[in-house]
Design brief:
The protein has 187 residues and is α+β, with helices and mostly antiparallel strands. Helix content is 35%, strand content 40%. Strands 1, 2, 3, 4, 5 and 6 form a 6-stranded mixed beta sheet that branches. The termini are far apart. The relative contact order is 0.20.
Protein backbone atom coordinates (compact mmCIF):
# COMPACT_ATOMS: atom_id res chain seq x y z
CA UNK A 1 0.00 0.00 0.00
CA UNK A 2 1.48 3.37 -0.92
CA UNK A 3 2.44 5.88 1.76
CA UNK A 4 -0.27 8.44 0.88
CA UNK A 5 -3.05 5.86 1.22
CA UNK A 6 -1.69 4.72 4.59
CA UNK A 7 -1.50 8.33 5.73
CA UNK A 8 -5.08 8.97 4.66
CA UNK A 9 -6.29 5.84 6.45
CA UNK A 10 -4.38 6.93 9.55
CA UNK A 11 -5.96 10.38 9.45
CA UNK A 12 -9.40 8.81 9.03
CA UNK A 13 -8.81 6.64 12.08
CA UNK A 14 -7.67 9.65 14.12
CA UNK A 15 -10.73 11.67 12.99
CA UNK A 16 -13.07 8.81 13.90
CA UNK A 17 -11.41 8.39 17.30
CA UNK A 18 -11.63 12.11 18.05
CA UNK A 19 -15.27 12.32 17.02
CA UNK A 20 -16.31 9.26 19.00
CA UNK A 21 -14.24 9.60 22.14
CA UNK A 22 -13.55 13.30 22.74
CA UNK A 23 -15.28 14.93 25.73
CA UNK A 24 -18.66 16.42 24.88
CA UNK A 25 -17.90 19.86 26.29
CA UNK A 26 -14.79 20.18 24.11
CA UNK A 27 -16.79 19.90 20.87
CA UNK A 28 -20.20 21.15 21.92
CA UNK A 29 -21.57 24.34 20.42
CA UNK A 30 -23.21 26.79 22.78
CA UNK A 31 -26.92 26.38 23.47
CA UNK A 32 -27.66 29.74 21.86
CA UNK A 33 -25.74 28.81 18.69
CA UNK A 34 -27.48 25.43 18.50
CA UNK A 35 -30.88 27.13 18.87
CA UNK A 36 -30.07 29.54 16.00
CA UNK A 37 -28.75 26.75 13.76
CA UNK A 38 -31.71 24.44 14.48
CA UNK A 39 -34.28 27.14 13.71
CA UNK A 40 -32.51 28.17 10.50
CA UNK A 41 -32.20 24.54 9.37
CA UNK A 42 -35.87 23.86 10.06
CA UNK A 43 -36.85 26.97 8.05
CA UNK A 44 -34.69 25.71 5.14
CA UNK A 45 -36.26 22.24 5.35
CA UNK A 46 -39.80 23.64 5.34
CA UNK A 47 -38.99 25.91 2.38
CA UNK A 48 -37.91 22.89 0.33
CA UNK A 49 -40.35 20.23 1.53
CA UNK A 50 -44.11 20.47 1.67
CA UNK A 51 -44.16 16.98 3.25
CA UNK A 52 -42.04 18.21 6.18
CA UNK A 53 -44.39 21.16 6.68
CA UNK A 54 -47.38 18.83 6.65
CA UNK A 55 -45.88 16.36 9.15
CA UNK A 56 -44.78 19.16 11.48
CA UNK A 57 -48.43 20.00 12.16
CA UNK A 58 -49.06 16.58 13.76
CA UNK A 59 -45.59 15.75 15.07
CA UNK A 60 -45.24 15.30 18.84
CA UNK A 61 -41.67 16.61 18.55
CA UNK A 62 -38.95 17.25 15.97
CA UNK A 63 -35.28 16.45 16.59
CA UNK A 64 -33.10 18.58 14.30
CA UNK A 65 -29.39 18.10 13.59
CA UNK A 66 -28.47 21.08 11.38
CA UNK A 67 -24.80 20.21 10.73
CA UNK A 68 -23.61 16.61 10.72
CA UNK A 69 -20.08 15.96 9.46
CA UNK A 70 -19.25 12.56 8.00
CA UNK A 71 -15.83 11.50 6.73
CA UNK A 72 -13.96 8.32 6.08
CA UNK A 73 -11.75 6.10 4.00
CA UNK A 74 -12.64 2.49 4.77
CA UNK A 75 -13.09 3.55 8.43
CA UNK A 76 -15.41 6.49 8.93
CA UNK A 77 -17.27 8.50 11.48
CA UNK A 78 -19.92 11.17 11.77
CA UNK A 79 -20.85 13.69 14.44
CA UNK A 80 -23.43 16.43 14.85
CA UNK A 81 -25.38 18.30 17.50
CA UNK A 82 -28.97 19.45 17.58
CA UNK A 83 -32.09 20.13 19.58
CA UNK A 84 -35.46 18.55 20.25
CA UNK A 85 -38.40 20.87 19.63
CA UNK A 86 -41.84 20.34 21.16
CA UNK A 87 -44.52 22.76 19.99
CA UNK A 88 -41.71 24.90 18.56
CA UNK A 89 -39.90 25.22 21.91
CA UNK A 90 -36.57 23.67 22.86
CA UNK A 91 -36.96 20.51 24.97
CA UNK A 92 -33.30 19.44 25.14
CA UNK A 93 -30.05 19.06 23.24
CA UNK A 94 -28.68 15.91 21.64
CA UNK A 95 -25.75 14.67 19.61
CA UNK A 96 -25.60 12.06 16.88
CA UNK A 97 -22.52 9.86 16.52
CA UNK A 98 -21.77 6.96 14.20
CA UNK A 99 -18.79 4.90 13.16
CA UNK A 100 -18.61 2.72 10.10
CA UNK A 101 -16.28 0.36 8.34
CA UNK A 102 -16.43 -0.73 4.74
CA UNK A 103 -16.23 0.52 1.21
CA UNK A 104 -16.36 4.30 1.69
CA UNK A 105 -14.28 7.33 0.84
CA UNK A 106 -14.89 11.03 1.12
CA UNK A 107 -16.37 13.68 3.37
CA UNK A 108 -19.69 15.44 3.55
CA UNK A 109 -21.80 17.73 5.65
CA UNK A 110 -25.57 17.42 5.91
CA UNK A 111 -28.48 17.97 8.24
CA UNK A 112 -31.37 15.79 9.21
CA UNK A 113 -34.60 16.07 11.14
CA UNK A 114 -36.56 13.31 12.86
CA UNK A 115 -40.32 13.87 13.13
CA UNK A 116 -41.71 11.93 16.11
CA UNK A 117 -45.33 11.14 15.28
CA UNK A 118 -46.26 9.14 18.39
CA UNK A 119 -45.97 9.66 22.13
CA UNK A 120 -44.52 6.15 22.39
CA UNK A 121 -41.62 6.92 20.03
CA UNK A 122 -40.90 10.21 21.80
CA UNK A 123 -40.98 8.51 25.21
CA UNK A 124 -38.44 5.98 23.93
CA UNK A 125 -36.04 8.78 22.96
CA UNK A 126 -36.51 10.66 26.22
CA UNK A 127 -36.10 7.60 28.44
CA UNK A 128 -33.08 6.08 26.70
CA UNK A 129 -29.56 6.88 27.81
CA UNK A 130 -28.52 6.74 24.18
CA UNK A 131 -30.74 5.62 21.33
CA UNK A 132 -29.18 3.64 18.51
CA UNK A 133 -31.27 4.09 15.39
CA UNK A 134 -32.34 0.67 14.21
CA UNK A 135 -33.11 -0.45 17.77
CA UNK A 136 -36.50 0.69 19.02
CA UNK A 137 -39.07 2.68 17.05
CA UNK A 138 -38.94 2.35 13.26
CA UNK A 139 -37.63 5.25 11.22
CA UNK A 140 -38.79 5.92 7.66
CA UNK A 141 -36.44 8.01 5.51
CA UNK A 142 -38.47 10.40 3.38
CA UNK A 143 -37.10 10.71 -0.13
CA UNK A 144 -38.66 12.57 -3.06
CA UNK A 145 -40.87 9.60 -3.99
CA UNK A 146 -42.34 9.15 -0.52
CA UNK A 147 -42.65 12.91 -0.02
CA UNK A 148 -44.98 13.25 -3.03
CA UNK A 149 -47.57 10.91 -1.52
CA UNK A 150 -47.08 11.64 2.19
CA UNK A 151 -50.01 13.30 3.94
CA UNK A 152 -51.22 13.36 7.53
CA UNK A 153 -53.70 10.65 6.48
CA UNK A 154 -51.04 8.34 4.97
CA UNK A 155 -48.39 9.03 7.65
CA UNK A 156 -48.76 5.94 9.86
CA UNK A 157 -45.15 5.34 10.96
CA UNK A 158 -43.66 6.45 14.28
CA UNK A 159 -40.69 8.51 13.05
CA UNK A 160 -39.93 10.16 9.72
CA UNK A 161 -36.42 11.32 8.76
CA UNK A 162 -35.66 14.13 6.31
CA UNK A 163 -32.12 14.86 5.04
CA UNK A 164 -31.23 18.35 3.86
CA UNK A 165 -28.35 20.68 2.91
CA UNK A 166 -26.06 17.88 1.72
CA UNK A 167 -22.61 19.13 0.68
CA UNK A 168 -19.46 17.19 -0.16
CA UNK A 169 -18.58 13.94 -1.82
CA UNK A 170 -19.40 10.69 -0.10
CA UNK A 171 -21.66 7.96 -1.36
CA UNK A 172 -24.93 7.52 0.49
CA UNK A 173 -26.66 8.88 3.53
CA UNK A 174 -27.99 6.64 6.25
CA UNK A 175 -29.00 6.63 9.88
CA UNK A 176 -28.74 2.94 10.75
CA UNK A 177 -26.31 2.58 13.66
CA UNK A 178 -26.30 6.28 14.56
CA UNK A 179 -26.44 6.80 18.30
CA UNK A 180 -28.37 9.77 19.67
CA UNK A 181 -27.53 10.94 23.17
CA UNK A 182 -28.68 13.87 25.32
CA UNK A 183 -26.01 16.56 25.89
CA UNK A 184 -25.76 19.72 27.99
CA UNK A 185 -24.08 22.46 25.95
CA UNK A 186 -22.69 25.62 27.51
CA UNK A 187 -25.15 28.49 27.77
Amino acid sequence: MCQSIRSFIGLSLVFTFLVLFSPQQAVAASAAQLDRDVNAALDDLYAGSAAAQTLAKDAKAILVFPDVVKAGLIVGGQYGEGALLKAGKNAGYFNTVAASYGLQAGAQKFGYALFFMSDKALAFLESSKGWEIGVGPSVVVVDEGIAKSLTTTTAKDEIYAFFFNQKGLMAGLGLQGSKITRINPDK
